Amino acid sequence: MIKQFIAAFIFLFLTVGISAQEKRLSKEEAVRLTLENNFGIKVAGNQVKIADNNQGVLNSGYLPSLTGTAGANYSELNSTTAYPDQFNTDGSPRQDLEINHAESQSFNGGLNLNYTLFDGLGRLYNYKRLKEQYQLTELQARETIENTLLQLFSIYFEVARLTENENVFKEALAISTDRITRAEYSFEYGQNTKLDILNAQVDVTNDSINLLNTKQQLANTKRDLNVVVNQSLSEKFQVDTIVRFVPRLQLDELIGQAKENNVTILQTERNLAINEYDIKVNSSGYLPTIGLTGSYGWNLNQSAPNSFLPGQVIPGSNRSSLTLGLGASLTWNLFDGGRTTTLVRNSKIAYENQELVQEQVAIEVDRDILNALASYENLLTIYQIQEQNVLTNENNFERSKEQFQLGRITSIEFRQAQINLLNAQTNKNLAKYDAKLAELQLLQLTGQLLNVEF
User: Fold this and answer.
1) What angle do CA 276, 282, 285 make, to 5 degrees?
2) Collapsing DSSP states into helix, strand and coil, what is residue 23?
3) Which of 1-5, 105-109, 124-128, 142-146 shows the lowest mean pLDDT across its residues?
4) What does the alpha-carbon distance between residue 163 and residue 221 come to, in Å, rounded to a whole number?
């Protein structure tokens, strides 16, 4: 019964492993999907579009403003003019004068043009400031992309590590299962006791639990990866477990160019330029503003008939007119209560603060690069040691296996050799991906994370 359960257990996991290999998600494909679909990167891209719109000529202040106006009025007149004790020339009494439903309308329309010829150069420096702001937004988007790719690879490498660990635990389970078969045969022929069978069964149980836990962690981590690349959470795939490290000479060259490419340093430079333009924009308040105005208008009046003299009615009239006007203005705020002076002083202080921030960031980046390089070298050395440790434990395990089959060592000693090999293999897997992730973090600090092969 136990052997049937174990056989079914192994068949289940081997079947799942085969079906999962139908699709392989390479590092390059994962990067492509992330750049195209990741929510955070899409938001950053929209922020760049907004900054691009802000730096355009439509937001520069260099274009004139044109407004149109229109209006209409309507009135209706009903009036009676009485002439008491007045007579016509023939002696007959003068009749009252009545005007009914006399309509009057008026219509008007116009265009007004305003254009600023000179505003103390504030418009020019603000336009340049928006250009710098656009470049800063691009750098912020690049930082978002770099951080997202680091997040991607931290999860991708965890999937790869768990995948390799899964294979290690499958192999360990197969070895422990084979031990049960051998122990049962030996017991039947009186070569060992029931204790060897029980020990093998305990080891199979432990290996099965390890495999189950690893599979569950792997499934969860794959779902995390699906979130980063923004694809279906039920998407099945395998990842690439091959890791290639950047040659040391190339890495040293990239480190030497870090100050020219590090995204944090570049952002401080853009912020410093923005603060410089803030000073110039605020200083424009000391200078006058010169503007041009223009207007074009049309008016139409249709008046109702009216009575001005006894017995005489003046008929209605239509009157239209066109007007054209041009003008120029000069405005100079000779004293604004010190507001402009305060703005200029504060912007200069902000510029000095940004210079201090730039110096601080430069020192911090140097420190981070040295720390990241030391960490990378240490982890790479550990990985190399773990590789050698795996070879040593593989040799020890093979010799122990031979001795166990010859009956020269106990099952407990053989199991210890197996555990030592399993620990060495899982530690090597952990060291490999830790070293690669440390390398990517170092590449981000050099500003070359997006320019290397993964």
Assistant:
1) 145
2) coil
3) 1-5
4) 11
